[in-house]
Design brief:
The chain is α/β, with parallel strands linked by helices. Helix content is 43%, strand content 21%. The chain has 2 domains: 147 residues, 2-Layer Sandwich (Nucleotidyltransferase, domain 5), CATH 3.30.420.40; 163 residues, ATPase, nucleotide binding domain (Nucleotidyltransferase, domain 5, 2-Layer Sandwich), CATH 3.30.420. Bound molecules: adenosine monophosphate and magnesium ion.
Length: 330
């Protein structure tokens, strides 16, 4: 039977709510995004205050624009983690309140699994090697033995943090990825930067320091942005290629906010072409954090009987996706 699930996302800068149907239609996806002051990163408490203020109107908008009646919602899913504690707690409280007042099950969802499962729904990917590149994650992932397995990851900063911290050094407000992409598109002058791939993992901290130093010494923002993108994207493309060659899968799916970047897609497509694999990128509207990721994954989990009593529900700031059982794919 086709039913509706409401999902709440609040792991970091975004408070978002969405209603999806269990047959995979996204009926609404409302959001409010916390903007940090220029030159600074996300302050967890400040972001949580944004979420607190935005929660009533975002939830109302998600329900109203879905066209659904409250009585049609059969479960409420929430991002249990990983993420920033104060932000996670706002979403959890909102979801608990709704689930308790509607008398429907509460379904905990791992945020990273949310990125992947919504990506599969929207791109039609069946068994991809996944590159998850966002503010909170940089991982190369593939499904095996009942779980999404991490085949490679960043040993320090995520790709989103690398771009945002570099942008902030230049005085931009986070998130800076799009501004860096625009600046990079105006240059083709490569400045030498450290390239650090260790086995299947990458390390970005030396690259960040070197990029900031180039700026401080007078190199143009355009040239350093271009060089930073070329270097960091080559690094993640190399480790994704290794995962693809090893697993012999035929799909590469890019998810997370950095998936919006056209140069990254271009590099991944050139690489995948050499392995007769196709590249699938999540549509822009759904590549960053959003409630639809949580609602859809909640629908899949709820279909397998996953739920948590409201009084036992919690949040988990650290929760690696390779410890999460995925019964709907097994
Ligand atoms: P998420 O955590 O999934 O919401 O992703 C947020 C991250 O995506 C931030 O670090 C942004 O700077 C980054 N981002 C957004 N758009 C782009 C873009 N066009 N190119 C590179 N990074 C981007
Ligand atoms: Mg995310």
């Amino acid at each position: 039977m086709n039913r509706l699930v409401l999902g709440v996302e609040s792991t970091a800068h975004t408070f978002s709510a969405s209603v999806v149907s269990t047959d995979g239609k996204i009926l609404s996806n409302a959001k409010s995004v916390y903007k940090a002051p220029e030159g600074s990163g996300i302050h967890p408490f400040e972001a949580s205050q944004n979420h607190l203020a935005a929660a009533p109107s975002v939830l109302e908008e998600a329900i109203r624009s879905s066209g659904a009646g409250l009585g049609e919602i059969s479960a409420v899913a929430y991002a249990m983690g990983p993420g920033l504690g104060p932000c996670l707690r706002v979403g959890a409280v909102a979801a608990r309140t709704l689930a308790a007042s509607l008398g429907v099950p509460l379904v905990p969802v791992n945020h990273a699994v949310g990125h992947i499962e919504l990506g599969c729904l929207l791109t039609g990917a069946r068994d991809p090697v996944v590159l998850l590149v966002s503010g909170g994650h940089t991982m190369i992932i593939a499904f095996s033995g009942g779980r999404w397995r991490i085949l490679g990851e960043s040993l320090d900063l995520t790709l989103g943090q690398l771009l945002d911290q570099f942008g902030r050094h230049h005085g931009l407000a986070s998130p800076c990825g799009r501004a860096i992409e625009e600046a990079a598109s105006r240059s083709s002058s490569y400045l030498r930067l450290p390239y650090s791939v260790k086995g299947n993992d990458v390390s970005f901290s030396g690259l960040l320091t070197a990029s900031k130093t180039l700026l401080d010494r007078g190199a143009s923002f355009e040239d350093v942005s271009y060089s930073l993108q070329e270097t960091s994207f080559s690094m993640v493309t190399e480790v994704t290629e290794r995962a693809l060659a090893f697993t012999e899968k035929k799909e590469v799916m890019i998810v997370g906010g950095v998936a919006a970047n056209r140069r990254l897609s271009q590099m991944m497509s050139a690489m995948a072409g050499r392995h007769s694999a196709r590249v699938l990128a999540v549509p822009l509207e759904y590549s960053g954090d959003c409630g639809a990721q949580i609602a859809w994954t909640g629908a899949l989990a709820h279909g397998c009987g996953i739920q948590v009593p409201v009084v036992e529900s919690s949040v988990r700031q650290s929760w690696r996706l390779d410890v999460v059982d995925i019964p709907w794919r097994s």
